[in-house]
Amino acid sequence: MPAQLENINDVLAQHKLSQLDYAHIKEILKREPNLVELGIFSAMWSEHCSYKSSKKHLNGFPTKAPWVIQGPGENAGVIDIGDGMAAVFKMESHNHPSFIEPYQGAATGVGGIMRDIFTMGARPVANLNALRFGNVMNDDEVSAHQRFLVRGVVDGISGYGNCMGVPTIGGEVSFDECYNGNILVNAFTLGLAKSDEIFYGKAEGIGNPVIYVGSKTGRDGLGGAVMSSDSFTEESKNLRPTVQVGDPFTEKLLLEACMELFKTDYVVGIQDMGAAGLTSSSFEMAGRSGSGMIMHLDKVPAREEGMTPYDFMLSESQERMLLCAKKGSEQAIIDIFEKWDLDAAVIGEVTDTGDMELFWHGEKCAEVPVDPVSEEAPILDRPVKRPAYLDALKDVSINDFAKVNNQEAFEKLIASMEVVDKAWVYEQYDSMVQTNTIKKGGQLDASVIRVKENGKALAMSSDCNVRYCYVDPKGGAAAAVIEAGRNVAMSGARPLAITDCLNYGNPENPEVMWQFAEGCLGIKEACAELTTPVIGGNVSLYNETNGVSVFPTPSIATVGVNDDQDNVLFSNFQEVGNELFLVGKSASEFGGSLYMKEICGTVAGELPVINYKAELELWELVIEANKKNLLECSKDLSSGGAAIALAKMAATSGKGCDVVISTDDERDIFAESMSRAIIEVKTENVEAFKAMLGNLPCEKIGTVTAADYKVNDVEMSLEQLDSVYFYQFEKIIQRDI
Amino acid sequence: MSRKKVAVLQFPGTNCEHDTVHAFESLGCETQIIWHKAEKLDSDVDLVVVAGGFSYGDYLRSGAIAKFSPVMEAVKEFANKGGNVLGICNGFQVLTEARLLPGALKRNEHLHFISKHHHLKVVSNENTFLSECTKDAVVNIPIAHHDGNFYIDEDGLKDLYKNDQVLLQYTDATGSLSNPNGSVDSIAGISNKEKNVFGLMPHPERAMEELLGSADGRKMLEGFLK
Question: Does residue A42 contact residue A375 with C-beta atoms inside 8 Å?
């Protein structure tokens, strides 16, 4: 074994391990660790891999339902979508890398989440992404840099996803100053598999070979998991070498080779090498099976000369998988990967020792018991404290600000970057490859693909109103679950499960930790009430630069099933003359609203009331009425309220509307009361539709027209609406070029 | 009418081969996917389709590596004997690189990948491919490419028109030219002089059913069924 470490304090600091951790490591090993071993502990106990700050709060998430095949704990969650088919999905963050190097950071985020899906045996069939940027509107350096980041991130997602031949069918993009120093890039992938052909990340059967497949290992991304478990400072630019470099072509080959491999019966278990590379994949696979493992690191295909065991264990080179195969199938597996011009090498085998034994040219260079590394990872009970800002903003209302007439307010809101069409983004993503896309980016609310194998459709939506999460961390997180579910339900699909990507600031700040704890409570409550369990997800902490943390941002993606792919409900006006209804209870609720931000210039107030019962009644109404073909379109109300929802419906359909909404205050057309939708119904179906309303409030507000947008005292021609809605985004983002 | 046999090429990085197979099967064709290392095509193949995607990652010029694959020799031989060859998107790029079609495809003028439904005008239907389409008809077909900016020099362009080789142009819904990528004369698709090798950037195989937004691609692919 290599010599023990000198300058131990420096080495611990570099690995972000405490003296307490060090004592614990010595206790586990019953001796001093060497550098390789210390590196392993550092990676496995990093915030990114161990969830040490978050674990306490993640316990108790609802994770079960009759349709859940696999909940959290594997590479991705799995739900049953009928007829022997399963949907495998997950969302993950790649925030820190994308801020340091937007193209590669975003690209490898997309690559990583797709590997999480196809390692389960599922072919990726849809991508979504949720992107948060800082202020892009100003003439200063900050805004110019943010615009550069937008262009780089979108380019990176486009470059990777398109080459993979997986359609990117939707997502969300929003902007707020709180992301000036920390953008968020959350990527979601959904794959399809037969429900009895799911593969898991396990390594069992003594003597079974451990095989490395995919790209060669280089030094890129070395220590990435540790990097992303820290806040940013001015020096963070120097971290560029910790960002991985993506090669989507190789990943495409890896996908096809794996799909070919999955048709055989050679595979015992398989796991992608993501954060903490070979370390996390090998430890997690052995850990799940209670096995030990021997690996000969000199047999790992290397991209460059002179790499050490430490480099091999901690590299985050992309497009690699570790698999455990049945003994005797080695050559057949190597042949498959060679056909696809990929490396495949037997690098070790499964043992019954419970230890990870690493060798370098025949000499043992590390020996670590598997279980304690994951089981005994530190779990922190970090202090929490309710942030002081909450009291200050609770009583703020729009009445505290100078009144603005509705026309002027509308013109400002419809032009805001959050509202306008994002064609500049989504048209850079191949949204139609695989020929399943029924509803995609730009068509509002949920995105929908058909499932060729069973005639059904899958609806999916990623949402998080971060202003809500700022004014009410618990209610805001619940609202994200509610809105993602509502978007799915408004397409006629029944919401079945969620994946979450919890982006928060520095957990060492008790106020941030409180926001996180509250966010988890909100998700637990909403998922339980709506019966949409959490089947997987990811936590990203330390989204903080120079002491400024991002707003709490729990991105939620909900997936639902529509039993009939030919009966997907769209979100925009379908036919002139049809009647429009506003369903759900409206009130003068402006807390955390778009109106408050854009017109009053603040993010404050009290969150609109959450009513799960009303929410579920709305879902039932739309799902059931759509089954009876009573509805023409249905659009949820969210940012900007009814006025903005109707404007989006008009712009995207090229049709107008003549609408009068009853209000207590004339500004209520922009209010953001939850559990509401605009529904379009043909006159002949109105009676049957109304008969299904039950206790839901419903107001006839007007009709679809051929020209002009008219809502109460606001008017705009379709030409003018188009010129703002469709051209504003590009104008802003491309202004430096 | 006997069942037509369609061979769809698969290079490393091809990603539209299954969509293409699905489209031709929905038209009742027999299909097969041909790995790029194949040196021969079956003797009873009626149509070879070079499908879309990113052959070899398109890290060099799009299609520049794929033209060296063994199967391309067989495709050249097949084409030279008069066999029908259709290149879609990356397939069009491969066919120009292999000199089975004139011109070249450069990076889009605005440098971005572009994915959307786009209208096209049928410029000529005096060929197998578009024989089921009406001349001057406007069809709605998805485009999805980074390198779709068709270029040909002036003499080459004159030859294209003289021989009726310009098949499709990008337009708006009314049929007026509308250029999404900087292509010379808004050209979206061409044929060789002999009218048996066809290439286009748009994806007719993605426009086979109204459910997905357009079924206008059917008429195009049906040209090969006769």
Answer: no
Q: What is the DSSP string of A170-200?
A: EEEEEE-GGGTT--EEEEEEEEEEETT----
- Chain B residues closer than 8 Å to A252 by CB: 12-13, 15, 54, 57
Using a CB-CB cut-off of 8 Å, the residues of chain B touching A165 are: 15-16, 53-54
3-state secondary structure of A253: helix
Domain boundaries along the sequence of chain B: 5-225
The strands making up A68-70's β-sheet, listed across from edge to edge, are A68-70, A77-82, A85-93, A184-194, A123-133, A168-175
Distances (CA, A) of B84 to A256, B5, B202: 28, 11, 18
Amino acid at B136: D
**Helices A510-530 and A612-627, packing angle to 10 deg:** 40
List the structure tokens of B26.
């929905």
Residue in chain B lying closest to A155 (CA): B112
Q: What is the pLDDT confidence band of residue A241, given thresholds at 50, 70 and 90?
A: low
Helices marked H in B32-165: 70-80, 90-97, 154-162
Residues B191 and B135: their CA atoms lie apart, in Å, by 16
Q: Are A536 and A72 in contact (CB under 8 A)?
A: yes
Q: Where does residue B151 rank: exposed (0-12), middle (13-18), buried (19+ CB within 10 A)? A: middle
Q: Of A624, A597, A462, A433, nearest to B54 (Cα)?
A: A433
How many contacts does A have with B, using Cβ atoms within 8 A? 87
- Whether CATH 3.40.50.300 fits B5-225: no
Task: Identify any residues that bridge with A698 across adjacent strands, giving them in sequence order.
Answer: A583
Distance CA A170, CA A161 (A): 12
Q: Can you say whether the dihedral through the CA atoms of A141, A146, A147, A152 is positive or negative? A: positive
Evaluate whether B175 touches B207 at the Cβ level (below 8 Å): no
Q: How far apart are CA A42 and CA A228, in angstroms?
A: 13
Vertex A307, ends A303 and A310: CA angle to 5°? 125
CA distance B52 to B9: 9
Burial code (b: 16+ CB inside 10 Å, e: under 16) for A183-199 equals bbbbbbbbbbbebeebb
CA B175/CA A732 separation, integer angstroms = 30
What is the Cα–Cα distance from A51 to A57, expressed in whole angstroms? 10
Q: How far is the C-alpha of B148 from the C-alpha of B104, rounded, in Å?
A: 9
CB count within 10 Å of CB A397 equals: 15
Q: Of A500, A489, A735, A442, which is closest to residue A615 (Cα–Cα)?
A: A489
Cβ of A436 within 8 Å of Cβ of B212? The answer is yes
Element (H, E) at A345: strand A343-351
In the annotation, is B133 catalytic? no
| Residues B69/B11, Cβ–Cβ less than 8 Å | yes
In tens, the pLDDT along A123-163 reads 999 999 999 999 999 999 999 999 999 999 999 999 999 99
Q: DSSP letters along A350-419, please?
A: EESSSEEEEEETTEEEEEEEHHHHHHTS----------THHHHHHT--GGGS----HHHHHHHHHTSTTT
Whether A92 contacts A114, CB under 8 Å:
no
Residue B115's region, left for phi above 0, alpha for psi from -120 to 50, else beta, is: beta
DSSP designation for A553: E
pTM of the model: 0.96
- Identity of residue A154: V
> Chain centroid to CA A649: how far?
26
pLDDT digit string, tens, across residues A271-319: 999 888 999 999 999 999 999 999 999 999 999 899 999 999 999 889 9
Stretch 162-191 of chain A: residues touching chain B, C-beta under 8 Å: 162-165
Confidence band of B61 (pLDDT split at 50, 70, 90) = confident
For the record, the structure tokens of B107 come out as: 């990076």
